[in-house]
Request: fold
Amino acid sequence: NFCPAGTATQGKAGTVYMRLGISESGVGADAILQGGDATDETGGDIRIVSGYSRKTTSGLVIIETANSGSNGASGYLLLQSGTAEGGDSGWVNVSTGRASGGTAGSISMSVGEGDSGTGGDISFTAGASLEDGGDGGAIILAAGESQSGRGGHAIIQAGSGATGGGDIALLAGESSEQDGGAVNLTSAYSAEADTGTLTLATGTSREGNSGSISLCTGDAKSGQAGTIV
Reply:
């Protein structure tokens, strides 16, 4: 069934508003929007699309949880695909649209501020493999390419603090039976110009000592310790 709002020739068209009842003492009612099931083919889709504009900006799509009361936390926002019994599980794609006459939109992920305790974390974890000999998933952070200018920068910066700045740790993975993972710092190849520069430098200090640079290999219990060339 289709339930459209009214059409307006000059002003704003009508709004479709749906709200569940209020619960005074129990848990609030749920609103479930579910696509249709199928026996032999793919299940039905759910599409939430904002309004189109012929001359200006299209409408927003806002998905948010409500603010909490005086005692409690705001609701979780969970975005995940379903499990799969005999195939691959669904993938989650977060991307902005292409801009033919302007700049493509950005993607911003940030954690809100807190008045007490430690700030919230942002965690990226690739998938584990339970198959014998299977590799774990990769995490790829790549800046954008440019056809006629410079490529985008990839900046990893720790947070500033009054009692000390945050650390940046680059750690390769451990292995119980084979070699541990490697850490490679390599500047990029250039076909017609100089290759990129690789700089290791500590920051300047106004009143204290500048930081040190240490290059060392790990200990070896039964083999030969690594060398620095």
Q: What stands out?
A: The chain has no helices and no strands.
